[in-house]
Amino acid sequence: MYRRSWSPGLRSLPVALAQLATAAVAMAAIEIVLFTREGVAPLAPIVAFPFVGLLYLAAGAVTWLRRPGNRTGALLCWCALAVLAAAAGNATIPALDGAGLITAELPIGILIHLLLAFPSGRLPDARSRWLAGGGYAVTVGLQAPRYLFAGGSAPAWLTIARQPTVVRAFTDLKQAAGLTVIALAAMLLLGRLRQASAHQRTSLTSVAAYGVATLLFLTLSANLASVMHISADTLFAAQLVVFAGVPGAFALALLRGGFARAGEIEELGAWLGAGHHDQASLRTALATALGDPSADLLLWLPEAISYVDAYGGPVVPPAGRGTVEIQAGGERVGAVSYDAALIADADIVRKAGQVIALAVQREQLTAALRASRARIAATADAERRRIAADLHDGLQGQLVVLALQAGQLAAGRVGAVGTQAAATDLRRGLETAISELRALVHGVMPALLMQRGLPAAIQDLLDHTPLPSHLDTTGASNCLPAAVESAAYLVAAEALANCVKHAGASKVSVQLARTGGQLEILISDDGCGGARAGPYGGLRGMTDRVDALGGQLHLASARGQGTQLRAEFPCG
């Protein structure tokens, strides 16, 4: 199962459980053989005692395997060992009899622990821990006088002295303390019930009610039996039957209740902390935690205003499915798409989303970077295709014609009268080809930019812009990295083109400034404003160019208030 690979320690869990089961079955078998051979009475309930321990073990093993990160299964297995140890007290062998007396009440202490720790198997607060500790103190600590001062009814190696008065006093104290712990635990559980969701309350109520009723019955049954004149054998059988129902109640509620995935979500958090995980493994872990194989992880891309996959491709949440948004730092970073018919409680999905929010944010940034690189690659590819088409359809054809003309002149196929005219045509053709080649090169990378730097190249752009313009180069420098110069020039060219085509501006200004290790270029117009970056288009391309160099692009374009575009490039 995938969940067992989340944590290295969980990989050995099936082996450990198999070893534990083997030891427990062997212990139960030895006890049953001893009870049968010795003919202890009442034989049937006492022989059934070890089987109750195995019942706890089976429920604990199933729960532990299904919810490895939940400690309820471990507690049930611990209770199974305590039951088997308590059952050993019915044997006549002194060592087993002593072990049984010491652990006789321990299963009740573990039951208190189980109730307080349900459903995660972990004690959630200080009150729970104090009450659980109190339960163990009552069932183990206050049990000691029963064998230390019991005299002949306990093995000699455990007895200090025969003090029946002390035994009776501690028995009464133990019952009073036990009832106090049970009452306080019941009040604590009632408070949790009020805070539980409606979907969880049914399962939590059934477990709490059965557990508290079992504890009260085990604590008070001896008193009730004396009042109702019930024999000790019948009482023991009734206690055994009631106690045997506990593991089934806990296991069923945990595996089927509204909080069945609490442990899985905790495991998901532990798995995330183990190291970096890509979206594919994150999606698989999420589906496992939710118990929904169809659960999917969607990444939110703000600039695209849509959900995307790991590679930045658009994704539409399927209709008819549940969708829960994932936020990190108050910002939407993704969503979980799940089968609403399978998972009735959206809170479980929301909690899982909170656990993976930071990992999703990392994947979101990675997807945005991949999408940006893909757009840059697509833009570069489109530019190469345009250059290739211009060369093939224009310049290459002209050069072929000029080569034929030159060949005719060289071969003397043109008469003396026509030689001068043919040479003139050839020269004009070459001048045209050179002019087109220069324009093509200028479109790719202006010669002025390479020769005189960014300020001069931008001034040339403004000179060719049909709008009144102003350039401020205070603090600007020509000593810039080539990549920064190229990107800044292309951003300025695209922004000025937008001013002319879309802004309806009457003037435009450009400011260049270099402060420390950063170049800032600010293009402002007094147009209509309202510009916004979409998933495609010029603004998207500018953002990609700036991001590729580790810079930032800021756009301020309120309607009716013009547009300001500021690009910042690291150039230290």
Description:
- Helix content is 63%, strand content 10%.
- The chain is α+β, with helices and mostly antiparallel strands.
- The protein folds into four domains: 2-256; 289-370, no CATH class; 372-444; 452-570, Heat Shock Protein 90, CATH 3.30.565.
- The strands form two sheets. It has a five-stranded antiparallel beta sheet with strand order 3-2-1-5-4. A five-stranded mixed beta sheet has the order 6-7-8-10-9.
- Mean pLDDT is 78; it is low at 1-11.
Summary keywords:
572 residues; alpha+beta; 4 domains; five-stranded antiparallel sheet; 10 strands; elongated
How does the SSE layout of this entry go?
Layout: H1 13-38, H2 43-66, H3 72-87, H4 94-102, H5 106-117, H6 126-141, H7 144-148, H8 164-195, H9 198-228, H10 232-244, H11 246-256, H12 262-272, H13 279-290, E1 296-301, E2 306-308, E3 314-315, E4 322-328, E5 331-338, H14 346-355, H15 357-410, H16 416-444, H17 447-452, H18 454-463, E6 469-472, H19 482-503, E7 508-515, E8 518-525, H20 538-548, E9 552-556, E10 563-570
Parallel strand pairs: 6-7
Antiparallel strand pairs: 1-2, 1-5, 2-3, 4-5, 7-8, 8-10, 9-10
Helix pairs in contact: 1-2, 1-3, 2-3, 2-10, 2-11, 3-5, 5-6, 5-9, 6-8, 8-9, 9-10, 9-11, 12-13, 12-14, 15-16, 15-20, 18-19, 19-20
Order of helices and strands: HHHHHHHHHHHHHEEEEEHHHHHEHEEHEE
| Largest beta-sheet details | 5 strands, antiparallel
In terms of per-residue confidence, which ranges show pLDDT below 50 for 5 or more consecutive residues? 1-11
The averaged pLDDT comes out at 78
Instruction: Count every helix, treating DSSP H or I runs of 4 or more residues as helices.
Output: 20
Strand order, main sheet: write it out: 3-2-1-5-4
Task: Provide the helix percentage.
Answer: 55-70%
Task: Kindly state the number of beta strands.
Answer: 10
Query: What is the CA-atom radius of gyration, in angstroms?
Result: 41 Å
Query: How many domains make up the coordinates?
Result: 4
Q: Which structural category do the helix and sheet elements fall into?
A: alpha+beta
Strand content: 5-15%
C-alpha end-to-end distance:
52 Å
What is the general shape? elongated
